[in-house]
TrEMBL record:
Protein name, as recorded: FAD-dependent oxidoreductase
Keyword set, alphabetical order: FAD, Flavoprotein
Domain of life (superkingdom): Bacteria
Keyword Flavoprotein in annotation: yes
Gene source species: Klenkia terrae
């Protein structure tokens, strides 16, 4: 950990700021109404922050992303949203809980190795994810503005002013204390504040295509490769209008330019040669090309402007996990920005967003490079290696678990000061607790979006702790089925995004717990 990160994690307490913020149209303007922008806006508004969301599109998007992984399901559950996603996924498949996944096109990665309440993923179109998150934003009071394109941005020490072109009316000027760009790889916000986007151009293209048909094979997901290429196929809609989604990288088609139209004849040839079977279908419902271009923003913040999700990076959609990492960005920044806006935390807390998320994103890009190198080597040697890895190495429990962590963005722990407890910076297990009020679990307790000061001994040493207006909920109980990593742990301080801020073995000590809370929040006792 750098000295700067240590300072961020251990900021010096000082008196709460009393200076009233200047009037603005919003506390926070979120630019971009994709999954990460919607999730962030919902997090902020649920905490009582005034939020305006600007979205260029007037209607939904054709779905590129189609997978929600266990870690994001945990986050949705911690806000009471998971069941909405399950219900919509059941419209595609009676049992929507898929227990396995792919890595570098190989399978299976077993979610049961992840130690999670949700040992499965969902196949769900991105458009449906956006619909659910939009409904949530509307319910918690986000002001949604569609047809809005950012044309200019200036900021000073007090706030940010956005010039916005409107598709259905005159241009607007919007002011805010903070701005978050969630506006994708071509981010207007990133360009406006002069953040460089560093990396490389594409070396090949793939095809994503939706075809109206029922799968002619029994498995839910069909993954096939040979010396002609690779195909991944799975259902995207069912009922009266069944749809199969195909991802294709073909040895010839991958040489096409990204803007070259995808034809029915090309898709038919690619699928026949890779699947080695003839599929009966008519025209394509939708098709697009994607590339392996890779870029990373040289910083995630400029003054009062932050970048989240795809505005910070672009990459090949290896294993279909990209949206899941973007959503985790949103959950990381959301509670922090809300706490600072509301005067519950010092502004230095916001520096932890990049300190925590950049290493995760860098690890993601490294994984994508590794997966592409293995997955798209269609040589005799490359195919032999994949068969060996899939047959001999993937079944090993330690290997399979490591791949599951990698896919969920959990292989990198958040940085913590030297001498921190072994659990600090790690995602917390969603354990059940027996309390005086009955049985509860951490995932349910997090729905209040407070820090959780948990006594796991049942002795309630924090019953008299005072935290003023700071968002801290104190709970005393005993784990019903204690996981190995919590054995001997007497106290946990859990952040609103489900990561351990502080932990201690043995009986609880109120003074040390208070000191841990003071590192994160502005507490007046």
């Amino acid at each position: 950990m750098t000295s700067r990160e240590a300072q961020v994690m251990n900021p010096q307490p000082h008196a709460a700021q009393t200076q009233e913020a200047p009037h603005t149209d919003a506390d926070v303007v979120v630019v971009g109404g994709g999954p990460s922008g919607l999730a962030l806006a919902g997090e902020l508004a649920r905490s009582g922050v005034r939020v305006v969301l600007l979205e260029r599109r007037m209607s939904g998007v054709q779905s590129r992303a189609g997978t929600i992984l266990p870690r994001v399901l945990e986050l949705f559950d911690s806000r009471g949203l998971a069941e909405r996603f399950f219900a919509r996924a059941r419209e595609i498949r009676d049992n929507p809980f898929v227990p396995v996944h792919i890595w570098a096109g190989m399978k299976p990665v077993h979610w049961r190795n992840l130690d999670t309440r949700f040992p499965h993923r969902l196949i769900l179109p991105q458009s449906t994810t956006e619909e659910i998150l939009t409904e949530d934003c509307e319910a918690v009071g986000v002001e949604m503005v569609r047809g809005a394109t950012v044309a200019g941005l200036v900021q000073d020490e007090d706030g940010v002013t956005l010039d916005v072109d409107m598709e259905d009316g005159p241009a607007r000027r919007v002011t805010a204390r903070w701005v978050v760009g969630c506006d994708g790889g071509r981010s207007a916000v990133r360009k406006a504040v002069g953040i460089d986007f560093v990396g490389r151009d594409e070396t090949f293209t793939g095809i994503i295509v939706d075809i109206a048909m029922v799968a002619p094979w029994p498995e839910v997901r069909k993954v096939t490769d040979n010396d002609r290429g690779w195909v991944n196929a799975y259902p995207f809609a069912r009922g009266d209008d069944p749809v199969l989604r195909f991802n294709i990288v073909h040895v010839d088609s991958r040489l096409a330019a990204k803007n070259e139209p995808v034809t029915t004849e090309e898709v038919r040839r690619d699928l026949t040669e890779i699947l080695e079977m003839d599929l009966e279908f008519d025209d394509l419902l939708w098709a697009s090309r994607y590339t392996d271009a890779m870029r990373l923003a040289d910083r995630f913040r400029e003054g009062r402007v932050f970048l989240v999700g795809d505005s910070t990076r672009i990459h090949y959609p290896a294993s279909g996990v990209g949206m899941n990492f973007c959503l985790q960005d949103a959950f990381n920044l959301g509670w922090k920005l809300a706490a600072v806006v509301k005067g519950q935390a010092r502004p230095e807390l916001l520096d932890t967003y990049e300190a925590e998320r950049r290493p995760v994103v860098e690890a993601l890009l490294e994984s994508v490079n590794a997966q592409c190198a293995v997955q798209f080597d269609f040589s005799v040697g490359g195919i032999a290696y994949k068969r060996f890895f899939e047959r001999e190495l993937m079944p090993l429990p330690d290997v399979n678990r490591r791949l599951a962590l990698d896919l969920n963005g959990l292989a990198v722990d958040y940085p913590t000061p030297a001498g921190s407890h072994r659990l600090a910076g790690r995602r917390v297990h969603d354990v059940e607790l027996q309390t005086e009020q009955g049985t509860t679990r951490i995932g349910e307790l997090l729905r209040g979006m407070d820090f959780l000061l948990l006594d796991l001994t049942g002795d309630d040493p924090y019953r008299d702790s005072k935290h003023g207006a700071a968002p801290v909920q104190v709970v005393s109980g005993v784990p019903t089925l204690c996981p190995d990593e919590l054995r001997g742990v007497g106290s946990l301080l859990v952040r609103p995004d489900g990561y351990v801020a502080w932990a201690e073995d043995g009986p609880g000590d109120p003074a040390r717990a208070d000191a841990a809370i003071d590192q994160w929040l502005e507490v007046v006792r």
